[in-house]
Design brief:
about 120 residues; Beta Polymerase, domain 2; alpha+beta; Iojap/RsfS/C7orf30
């Protein structure tokens, strides 16, 4: 596994925040060797634009409060169906359930290691 422990800690915080706002299919992926420009992806889904917004807000708030981290870039906030939060060392994808099936990031990165998102 190539994901440094501080990045894994932030990923776990983001996953917990997403889960608290009822996101589904939360998956962490070690993409460092495959992508090269980031260490990890966090993928999660929600059934509506309103819930996607709530998940994104909670993730951003918790990462700021607990780790002092803010995204370098946000994409898709206006569309409401796929929001990407780029923190540099990790990229968080919050997708509408239908968008997730359509674009298939899970399939594209099926061979990379999955990360344990549970805190010890």
């Amino acid at each position: 596994m190539t994901v440094p422990e501080p990045v894994l800690a932030e990923l776990r915080t983001a996953a917990a925040a997403a889960q608290d706002k009822l996101a589904t299919e939360i998956v962490g992926l070690d993409v460092g060797e495959r992508v090269g420009i980031t260490d990890a992806f966090l993928l999660c889904s929600a059934p509506s634009e309103r819930q996607i917004s709530a998940v994104v807000d909670e993730i951003e708030d918790r990462l700021k409060q607990e780790h002092g981290s803010a995204p370098l870039r946000r994409e898709g906030r206006d569309s409401g169906t796929w929001v990407l939060l780029d923190y540099g060392h990790m990229v968080i994808h919050v997708q509408h359930e239908q968008e997730r099936v359509l674009y298939g990031l899970d399939r594209l990165y099926a061979e990379v290691p999955k990360l344990d998102l549970h805190t010890l």
